[in-house]
Structures are given as C-alpha cells and as structure tokens.
Design goal:
Layout lengths: L14 H9 L15 E5 L3 E2 L4 E8 L3 E9 L3 E11 L9 H4 L7 E4 L7 E10 L5 E10 L10 E4 L2 H7 L22 E3 L33 H9 L10 H14 L4 E4 L1 H6 L9 E7 L2 E3 H12 L3 E7 L3 E6 L4 E3 L5 H4 L25 H4 L2 E8 L12 E2 L18 E2 L8 E5 L2 E4 L2 E4 L10 E9 L17 H11 L4 H7 L1 E11 L2 E6 L4 H6 L3 H15 L7
Parallel strand pairs: 2-8, 9-11, 9-12, 12-14, 13-15, 14-25
Antiparallel strand pairs: 1-3, 3-6, 4-5, 4-7, 7-8, 10-16, 15-16, 17-20, 18-19, 21-22, 23-24, 24-25
Helix pairs in contact: 1-4, 10-11
This protein binds fe (ii) ion.
C-alpha cells in the first residue's frame, strides 16, 4: 500500500480564496467569461431512444459553431460531426435554474437506429471574441428499445442527483439565488439548462471528495476538490455528482470487462418502468440520492417478479416529485414540513422529505436494504477523516467475495478508497463477532450484513473552530428532528453515529445486493482487483453467467 502524504495538496490559492472555494457560492452563468466569449448547450431531454430526434438549444457569442458527438464507453467512438451551424446569443431568465433557459432550438439530429445504448458526449466549438477557440460539453443518453435482453445489464444513471447538484444558472438543491435575499437553495430545478463544468468530462487529476491525505492531529479540514474547482474554473459540485465523477466509471468498467451493458436515465425508471423487464440485472451506481415514489415502485415490482438489483451506490436520501412532463424536479428537503404543499392538503406520503420521515411511511431500506440517515459522511471534513478507506468484512464466506481471498476483519477496497464520502447503513448489533440489523432497523427480512464501517453525521468539533466547520451538525439535527420530532441534543446523540454497509437480501422472486457507498466506483476507476472481482461476482450471478460452463 502506498503511503499517503501528510499535507493537503495545494492549488495555489490564498487562504482567502481557499475559504471562498468552500464557503462561497460560485456557479456558471451566461456572460461569466466576458471578453473571451461563451458557448452553452442543453438538450430537450436527458435521454432518447434510437430513431428519436435530439434537439439542441445553444446560446453563443459566436455566430457559428461545430459539434462532435462521441460515445463515451469502454472506448470512445465518434458517431457524428457537423460544422458551420448557426447560433446566436439568447436571453436567459434570471431564475433559469428553476424555470429553465427557454432558449430557441438551434439544431436537431436523429439518433441512428444503429447507435448503441450509452452516454454520448457533445463537444461544441466556436471562435471566441479574441479569436481563440471556445468550447463546452453536453451529455445525453441513448436508452435501449423495449424488448427482452437476455444476458444484458441495464445501468440506471443517477440523473436525479445530477440535476440536484447542477450549479448552472446559480441554483440547485444545495445553494441558490432564490428567495428575497437571493441566498436560498432551489426547491425546484429545471432540466432545461446546460450541465455545469465538470459533469461531462474531467481531467484525470481532478480530486475526488475523500481525502488522500494522512491528516495530522489537530488539523483544520481542507477540501481539495472544492479548492481545485475554484482554482480551475470547474463547478463547485463537480466531485459531488455527474457522469464524469461517478456513473462513467462503472459503465466503462463493464464494457471493458466484456459485459453487454445498456443505460437509461431515471426518467425512464419513472415514466417507462417496463424498461426494466427486459433485463436479468439492473445496476445503480455512484452518488444516487434523489428518487421519486414511482421510481421505487419500478424497482420494487421488478425485484418482486424475479429481477436482480445490484446497487453500488450511496446516499438513498430524498423523495422528489417530477412535474411539467419531467422537466422540473421538486425537492423541498430541509424546508419540506414548512413549505411543501404535500403537507397542506396534498398527499403527505409524497412529501419531498427524507424517505425516513415517518409520515411518508417508506424508508429507503424497504427498497435497497439500507437507509441514508443511518450512514452519511466518512473520509472528509471532520467526519472520520482518518477512518477506514475500505469496507470492513465480516462474512468473507459469502458468494460475493468468492475468489477475492479476503478474510474476516480485512478491508475491502482500502487501496482504492471505496468507502465514503457518503454511505448508507442500518442500526445493528454485534453478536458472536457478527453484525445483525436490530429489530427496529427497518431491514427487510433475510437481510445479511456482509461488511460494516463507521460513519458520522456530525462533524467532530474538538479541534475545529466553529468558523472552520463546513459540515457542522446541521444534517444530524435535521435527522433528529425528522425521525424524533425535535432537534434536541438528546435526539442528536441518537443519530450522529452512523455506519456504511454491504448487504444482500431476497425479495419476492428476486434479490438485491447493495454496497452502500458513493465511492465504490473509485475501485473500478483505480482498477482495484478485489473490488472488480466482487463487482463481477454480483453481475455474473445476477446475469446467470456464473452457471455457464458448469
Ligand atoms: Fe449526497
């Protein structure tokens, strides 16, 4: 194992800039690049089927632009190219993050019938005001046509989370320019805007959220990913969500490892749940935090009828609603009980609150075995910054670990740092050296806990002055209030110690495997042999490939 450095990486920022990188609200907006000029693009939808038409909405300071479309899989394939397209600068409403940009359509093209399902990167190029080239990137998905797909795997991209974190236009579900003082996060976000910088492509050196630093004692936390974002002009949230940081690593791994893989957005899950029926196995990966009721119905029904769900993802946290034919995502989050109309004469089970809010009556564990508020942060800030980097394994004899050579008490994926930065867990107890979910944990019947690590919902403050805390105890107090009605110290104490698990359970005629960590994909990105092997064990079993040749 390589030894970690004891100093944070430095990207040349002053202390004031470092503070702004973490505390500030900076985002992409039309006009931000001033004298160099800009080109921006979004498409009318996240995903299309073969034969359908992609409509690009472009705003550019240059009158002409060109596009190149590349399929971004195990290898990169150019599928389309066109130059000499006309563009103009289009007016953008101030609240475009919420309302959408409303730009006129600029260019359309048809998805070829022979374009395989996958993620397609659009690079737009034009001439800047000073004559030097300007670029931007967009991404759309090609979802599969209906029908039986024996032996094929379907990945559902975490597009609800992409949308929640997209900083373009100033507002997302975290920070924003809404409200009377233009300082509130948006409870509604639109799909009709470009992706922020770093969601589509990233250079290899872009830091991930979990720290690759052996943090010395009494050290004020630093956040290399946000410092790098600030220093290089990327989105503040590039490392929190998006194709480039998360979903792409699983998709590329699967193709390179020889799996036949298709991809769909969560919009298919919501509006066309029958898409799952063609597959023996459906995978969910990365940072996968925002789901609608209907999306959960789709997965629950699929598994009940015999489908296998493989989730290598963390942070199954919020219920959302889709409006305007899917062009608007609603999530009131921390303000739900005060502001969401679902609490004022609406259907409270559809409240856009934590899935564990008792009034919703549908904890996340009922679908994927684990809950977000029993887990959360690990490996960054003041939340277990020196904690385990891999999953501590308790049941090495389980089929998922076959061929890995892993033992009881070993860490799975420590070298590639798969454990963090948000994990999902359950209340549990240890008996005879083995973990079991407690009776009140909400675990589905037959759930086996294969691995458990520690996590924290509250930033430990002994060595960190309050003004230097970024995560604080805010999430812990919210969970305490959501679960127990009041954000008291006593209730905070009940929720602040979390965990992250790998679990497996049967459901109806199907089965669920869940490695509850956002960073599982880091093991695939960094080609960690043990993480790859576990991933293949799960996929092979769920696709019926392990039976071949027997
Ligand atoms: Fe999250």
């Amino acid at each position: 194992m390589t030894r970690l450095p004891t100093e944070f990486p430095d990207f040349g920022l002053t202390p004031e800039q470092r503070r702004e990188a973490v505390r500030g609200h900076y985002y992409e907006w039309p006009g931000m690049d001033g004298s160099s000029g800009e080109i921006w693009c979004y498409s009318d939808r996240f995903s299309y089927r073969p034969g359908e038409t992609v409509v690009l909405h472009v705003s550019s300071t240059a009158p002409q632009f060109g596009i190149v479309v590349i399929r971004d899989g195990g290898s990169e394939t150019k599928v389309f190219e066109k130059t000499g397209l006309s563009a103009r600068w289009q007016e953008t409403p101030d609240q475009c993050s919420v309302e959408g940009c409303g730009w006129e359509a600029s260019f359309e093209f048809r998805i070829g019938n022979d374009w395989p399902s996958g993620a397609y990167r659009v690079t737009l190029s034009a001439e800047g005001r000073d004559g030097s080239p300007i670029h931007s990137h967009h991404l759309f998905l090609v979802a599969p046509l209906p029908g039986k797909k024996p032996g094929r795997l379907l990945q559902v991209a975490a597009t609800g989370t992409w949308l929640a974190y997209n900083t373009w236009g100033g507002s997302n579900h975290y920070q924003g320019i809404t409200g009377p003082n233009r300082d509130q996060y948006a409870t509604m976000v639109s799909t009709q805007r470009p992706w922020c910088r770093g969601f589509v492509v990233l250079p290899k050196e872009a830091p991930r959220v979990p720290l690759e630093v052996a943090v010395p004692p009494k050290t004020v936390p630093r956040y290399p990913h946000m410092e790098w974002a600030f220093a290089t002009g990327h989105s503040k949230k590039y490392a929190s969500s998006g194709w480039a940081s998360y979903d792409s690593h699983f998709f590329r791994f699967a193709e390179r490892a020889g799996y036949q893989i298709d991809i769909a957005s969560q919009h298919e899950l919501h509006f066309s749940p029958e898409i799952l029926d063609g597959y023996d196995c459906v995978a969910f990966v990365g940072h996968d935090e925002y789901w609608t009721w209907e999306m959960r119905d789709a997965v629950d029904n699929y598994v009940e009828r015999g489908g296998r769900a493989a989730r290598f993802a963390g942070n199954f946290m919020w219920q959302t609603r889709l409006e305007d034919e899917g062009r608007r995502q609603v999530c009131y989050k921390y303000r739900a009980r005060a502001e969401d109309p679902a609490y004022r004469g609406g259907d409270v089970t559809r409240a856009t609150n934590s899935w564990e809010a008792p009034e919703i009556g549908r904890p996340g564990s009922a679908t994927f075995g684990l809950n977000a508020t029993r887990g959360v942060y690990a490996g960054w800030g003041g939340c277990a910054p020196r904690g385990v980097r891999g999953f501590p394994v308790y049941r090495p004899e389980h089929w998922a670990f076959a061929g890995t050579g892993i033992y009881y008490g070993d860490l799975l994926g420590a070298d590639s740092h798969v454990y963090g930065y948000e994990v999902d867990g359950l209340d549990f107890e240890i008996r005879g050296g083995l973990p079991y979910p407690t009776a009140t944990s909400g675990a589905p019947d037959g759930l086996q806990v294969l691995a458990v690590g520690m996590a924290s919902q509250v930033e430990e403050s002994a060595d960190i002055p309050i003004e230097d805390q970024f995560l604080t105890d805010e999430d812990g107090r919210f969970t305490a209030e959501t679960l127990f009605g009041e954000a008291s110290d006593a209730n905070l104490d009940k929720v602040k110690r979390g965990d992250g698990m790998i679990v497996n359970f049967p459901r109806g005629k199907g089965e669920v495997f869940h490695a509850g960590s956002c960073e599982w994909v880091a093991g695939l990105l960094r080609q960690d042999a043990m993480v790859e092997r576990v991933t293949k064990n799960v996929l092979d079993r769920y696709l019926g490939r392990d039976k071949k040749g027997e």
